[in-house]
Write a structure and sequence with these properties.
Four copies of one chain form a homotetramer. Chain A is of the alpha+beta class. Helices cover 30% and strands 19% of the residues of chain A.
């Protein structure tokens, strides 16, 4: 390997907006979108990462806030995400009750983990890498309660496929699993299948929920839950070998502020993208299946607003 | 729980096409699309599962075969998938060399695992559940070699997002991870980042490939690799509790043939969907970025055919 | 001009399906898609014209039949098209009452013109060119009664824009005009504007309908009406100069059956495409505007089915 | 008819931006989008018309300027529109030579008519209605020279269909015709067909161009030309009967500035939308047909840029 010329790169910082980005233009940050944007477009926005910055998601979160409100008003849908892993600190599966967990519990600490004990461990893990100028990633778990039965599509646009695309479109995400996910492959079919039963209210329900609320691409009325993996932040404060835009081997040392763990900040992004997917699918479902229901004894129409006072005032 | 009325359900079988499906219409198979199709549409195709059957993917595989051929001719792209896990038999990460693995190795055994020793173990695992009338799932790993740099999009339609959607649209898939995926969250940024270097041919390359060939939604020229989790087949030969279409608790015993492990059969589906995604993105890239390249020193144009003889004869 | 080599081209004929198309492959029929398909694809389906044949519209008409039925059941929408011009025989504007014209009147003769007197003139015009081996075109007028107010979109996807695209996608169509259309440019604004008034049922109505039922891209509750121009059939039985696929000047004489005037056959195509556009827009409208009505005193919700018996039985 | 209560409505005026719009909110302007926006959304932007204002087209014109530049650089495409009718002043068909007309000729007068004599007549016609507080419409003709052969699609997305949709999406447009259009129905097929011949450069050409440069949905290399009808401006300075938002019959007298004829201002909108359609289709064509040409002797590849210096500098 050629010995690299040292390059000191300045990373944007809210306190130093006027900083000098000229050096940053010279080196490709490892595992960042710097190089691929140049490969594709031959041009990129150096300041702040341009479209590759997680700031891009602000529009998604704004739209998601509206979608969440409408879903709640229309069908009582509640979407909540929380941090379930930071580096090697793993929140146990049974530490959170999907039926009862609240936003208050999630927002009670800075890492957005509803379990206070594990929140402390996660915060400690982040502090540990921060002082070393390093970074760590983690996992966000998302649940959606009260999603109507029948939302989604049977083939290409399966509900889990739409959710997977939405989540992998978030910066730094590298994995998605719904229901039992990868761990579900450790089971046999007889262990894994979710048996149906009739509940006291006369609804078809499942006793277990390894399906994660989706079967055959369509919601079954159980809680939808899935996990998203986020890699460690690419921009770190440690010296790295890389190449410059001029194709020279160089050493890079990022200066300025950088975030050692973006996972807690991904929580509202995950919730918002889930809300946008569900809202889109709900709109499609109502247009496709509720204008002309074929069999009311099997379908459960979500229905339209019956009066202005029912919905409109709550949207303002 | 109400004691279920026993229902014996007949599962379609290539030897008994004329079989009686009337009983199958009565019970919802656990973890199958039976119930959700009824919730959504109020009607479903009982025979063979209709659109929820993996037979639906035949069109995808046909189209994928063309896409693979074109990608190969145009850019030398090679797409190969193989089984890397069956139930609890896990192919070690280092057992397969992504640079050199061949389709011959993969197709040398019935489970489509390129390592003969692990192939035997997987076959044994499948045989074990077959005789019990049970089923198992597993994981398919897919690689794409020689994908040009610059394929993909920076925001919503990231290459990994398109791949994730494509894979989660396959029947029985429950998870997707690209590059280091979920396991990548165990690393720090300094351990995880893929350092860039200039190779002897003057190309920007990375020393490691935890990114899985994609950074910021766009291919970086390294091998693209990802994994897809497939749950155990829902239809099994063991008695299960469930409910009927008429909302009665019943016992279900599927009769007829059923497949104890569909994972080997998912291999061509995964390859085909990967090829279709890459083909779509390649077409978009050429239209968007190669008609009007901005900076040839950074971009690497894929280019157009220069003569009819170059391509046309090979497509027939 | 080079003197062309005579080529006799055989045109498909329902009585002679086994006919020899080899000659047809040699010459480009003037004003047909023969040449442009070759320019674009380098290959074309010679037999029957492939996708350029009006037979392609069979799927549109089948889907349109369903859409018409649903629109009728849901909102009482009635879509009727008829021939209003054949060559130089022009049906006077006031010969047809858009409020009362029926399908029976339209279907009472072979040219699908609701006025018997003009139907006779049109039939005579067609007979006249048939015996000469020539062809003629004409105009189809389409009306849609009882379209709910509020259907359409305000900017790119205006209802008239969707209709225009749908109509210009029909083979041989060369023009589209809605409401007063091109003739509306002869009026001043004070002559052309449709004054609003409140009718006895308390609905906002217009006294005239030069808008053709659409204002600002959105339906206003009046009858939607538009016209579509169809050029004379390109394939004729008279000798024409043209060029061959091998770029030689040739003379072409089409043999076999050809249709001297396709305009009456375009009537169901026009109706079907109108129904598909309206159905799409109705579905979008219900999803976008009726799930969350903002102001019931201004909007007129179309509403959902309130019982299975209301709709389902009628769709079977 | 109920005697209307007089309402004086203020129409926005660049000199009086702070004007009082409160009265305008009360009455629906005849033939304007006022009423339909309320029917659909239950809410509308009163000031300036919101999305129904032609100001909305600014983004289209900005994007169109780029598309025109790229089309010119890539394929020498020239797109020019001009006013060919204002009220009852009709520019004769032979007054403009499509082969040679220039932007300078078009821009030489305020009505954007390339014939000075008719421009004067049009200006006089507009002046005449302006003083009466009335309005008039007209027709814009658009031509596109040097469009490559093979651009467009054979079925739903025919080039003429895309153009028709684009034009009918412009405010106040009521009609579209390509090539011979509605007048083409006066001809027989033998009179109307465009005979092919080989020109001296060895290209397949047509002697006439009644097709308007498009056959079977695909460009044939001749000049594309079409016409768009624009109705008289809805907002006028004369008293009109209408209804208020509260469903009362009222009289409306618009105050403030209003434009008596928007047709000259529609010229750049028409050019821009044509450029955007052609650009989209060119991109699709290159991706679909030029990556893998099937028959070079029939197709005429447009080709990719062969060097950065060829294109990039000209785009800045």
């Amino acid at each position: 390997m050629t010995t690299g010329t040292p390059i000191h790169v300045f990373v944007p910082n809210t306190d130093q907006r006027g900083g000098d980005y000229s050096e940053m233009a010279k080196a490709y940050r490892p595992s960042h979108a710097d190089a691929t944007y140049d490969f594709k477009y031959g041009v990129r926005a150096v300041q702040g990462g341009g479209r590759s910055s997680a700031r891009e998601t602000i529009g998604r979160v704004a739209a998601g806030a509206l979608a969440k409100k409408i879903l709640k008003l229309k069908s009582g849908v509640e979407i909540l995400a929380f941090v379930s892993k930071v580096h090697q600190v793993v929140l146990p599966e049974d530490a959170v009750d999907f039926e009862t967990v609240t936003m208050e519990q999630i927002e009670s600490n800075i890492v957005r983990c509803p379990d206070p004990e594990y929140a402390e461990k996660m915060i400690a893990a982040i502090d540990k890498v921060r002082i070393r100028g390093d970074s760590i990633g983690g996992v966000v778990t998302c649940i959606a309660r009260n999603v109507p039965r029948g939302i989604g599509s049977p083939v290409f646009d399966k509900l889990e496929a739409e959710l997977a695309k939405a989540m992998l479109s978030l910066p730094a995400s590298k994995g998605f699993e719904i229901g039992s996910g990868f761990a579900g492959t450790d089971f046999t079919g007889s262990e894994h299948n979710d048996e149906f039963y009739m509940d006291e209210a006369g609804n078809v329900r499942t006793r277990t929920n390894r399906s994660g609320g989706v079967q055959g691409g369509i919601s079954n009325g159980e809680i939808i839950y899935f996990k998203v993996a986020f890699k460690p932040t690419a921009t770190i404060g440690k010296k790295q070998n890389t190449v410059s835009r001029e194709h020279q081997d160089v050493e890079l040392l990022a200066r300025g502020r950088h975030d050692p763990c973006v996972v807690p900040r991904a929580v509202p992004m995950v919730e918002s993208m889930a809300a946008l997917v569900l809202m889109d699918q709900l709109m499609a479902h109502i247009a496709q299946c509720e204008m002309f229901p074929l069999n009311f004894s099997l379908q459960e129409p979500i229905g339209m607003a019956s009066s202005a006072s029912e919905l409109a005032p709550n949207l303002s």
